[in-house]
Design goal:
By secondary structure, the chain is mostly beta strands. 0% of the residues lie in helices and 51% in strands. The protein has no helices and eleven strands. The strands form two sheets. Strands 2, 4, 5, 6, 9, 10 and 11 form a seven-stranded mixed beta sheet that branches. Strands 1-3-8-7 form a four-stranded antiparallel beta sheet, with no helix packed on it. Strand 4 and strand 5 form a beta hairpin.
């Protein structure tokens, strides 16, 4: 499995931006689809978005389309989540995850990073 460590969370006002990073180690990063998930207090974890192995394709949850962008740098073993026009409802712990196949379960998860958006 690949090991994942997120960073970049924090407190931001509504309308602001944050960029989360997820650094991978232990396996060939470019062999993995990378996903971002989030979990708000009292809610189930939800899918945010996914980027392909090459970075050429990505998909997003409807509520973040047009505001969030996932990118990756395979040379640096890093995947990013750029979050713009943040809303209080984006407040959650954000997790990155990796899977080797285009469908199925995510095999590896990071520890999460807290994002808090104040109104």
């Amino acid at each position: 499995q690949v090991q994942l460590v997120e960073s970049g969370g924090g407190l931001v006002q509504a309308g602001g931006s944050l960029r989360l990073s997820c650094v991978a180690s232990g396996r060939t990063f470019s062999n993995y689809y990378m996903g971002w998930f989030r979990q708000a207090p009292g809610k189930e974890r939800e899918f945010v978005g996914l980027i392909s192995k090459s970075g050429g394709n990505s998909v997003y949850q409807d509520s973040v389309k047009g505001r969030f962008t996932i990118s990756r740098d395979n040379a640096k073993n890093v995947v990013y989540l750029q979050m713009n026009n943040l809303k209080p409802e984006d407040t959650a712990v954000y997790y990155c995850a990796a899977r080797a196949t285009d469908i199925g379960v995510f095999e590896s998860w990071g520890q999460g990073t807290q994002v808090t958006v104040s109104s």
